[in-house]
Amino acid sequence: MTDPLVTKLQTWLTEFVALLPNLAVALIVILVTFLVAGLVRRGVRTLMESVSNYAHANNLVATVARIGVILTGFFIALSILKLTGVVATFLAGAGVVGLALGFAFQDIAANFISGFMLAIRRPFHEGDIVETNDYLGKVDEINLRTTIIDTFQGQRVIIPNKEVLGNPMVNYSQRGRRRIDLSCGVAYGDDLEKAKRVALETVRSIEYRDESKDVDLYYNEFGGSSVNFVIRFWVEFTAQTDYLHAQSDAVMRLKKAYDDTDVTIPFPIRTLDFGVVGGEKLNEVLPRSMYRENGGSSGPGASASPASSSEMASSETASSETASSEAASDASPQT
């Protein structure tokens, strides 16, 4: 009687020998898969570099393509070995694990996907001056998960790519120029045409102004002490200092030009009107009794009324009589 263990070993040996051709083919498939995966990775990277300058995203896409080719080769090799059940179990397990990881790391995954979209769309580059999520500064680094901005106050801000992609963003460097809106005001007594002409000539004389764009000036408000206007001009923009220097230079030139041409930039002035409608003086609004109670006249600068003079004379007479009585009392002999 044959030993069951020996029989089992013989069966396994027979099946292994029968499987050798398929095993050899599967190994060849795996080797070819790795070779093809390397070629695919280099080809995808070259293709991505033609549409994106973002090295991190290019490497990510190339790596994902390589892993996809390798997994496909493994599935083919398992099918050749007639291990389709293992393939189905592996796919089911991978699906469950992927679902669980998706829920656990959805924010990280969203940031990675957003980083990939930023790499493809390229709304800004490293070194650009941008404003996003209430932060203004220069882009220092863009990676797959975050965008790093150095503000002009010296802070380093790390913003998740999901927030960068999902919120409005202003790229000041994209067009290479920027408009300056300078607000000012002139006195009501000045000639507005003259003030406008002087301001336009002054700003047009700025050497580094973008001459392809004209200078505009608009009066826009009757202020409390001045007629206000805004003057607009464009400058070449590569750094934040270009904007600040041009703005400062325009302010100084405009102030000097107005001083030289006797155009006034007024201080804040307040005119007080009294009464319901206005235009009345203070002494015309307040009751006269307030001036009499305070020992004053009926108004500022007015002379005393006859009644007031009589009252003052009576007061002086009464004071004199009181003083005389006190003196006589002191002079009488004491008992």
Give an overview of the whole structure:
The chain has ten helices and eight strands. It is of the alpha+beta class and 335 residues long. Among the domains are: 15-104, Helix Hairpins; 124-171, SH3 type barrels; 177-260, Alpha-Beta Plaits, CATH 3.30.70. The strands form two sheets. Strands 4-3-2-1-5 form a five-stranded antiparallel β-sheet. A hairpin with a 2-residue loop joins strand 1 and strand 2.
The first-level CATH class name of the domain at 15-104: Mainly Alpha
The fraction of residues in strands falls at: 15-25%
Say how many strands there are. Answer: 8
Task: From the alpha carbons, calculate the radius of gyration and give it in angstroms.
Answer: 45 Å
Distance between the termini: 168 Å
Give the overall form.
elongated
What CATH architecture of the domain at 15-104 would you give? Orthogonal Bundle
Biggest sheet architecture: 5 strands, antiparallel
- What is the SS-derived class? alpha+beta
Percent range for helical residues?
55-70%
- Report the CATH topology name of the domain at 15-104: Helix Hairpins
Average pLDDT figure: 79
Strand order of the largest sheet: 4-3-2-1-5
| Poorly predicted sequence stretches spanning 5 or more consecutive residues | 298-335
Summarize the structure.
The chain is of the alpha+beta class and 335 residues long.
Q: Could you outline the blueprint of secondary structure elements for this entry?
A:
Blueprint: H1 4-51, H2 55-80, H3 84-104, H4 106-121, E1 129-132, E2 135-142, E3 146-151, E4 156-160, H5 161-166, E5 169-171, E6 177-186, H6 192-204, E7 216-222, E8 227-236, H7 240-260, H8 282-285, H9 288-293, H10 306-331
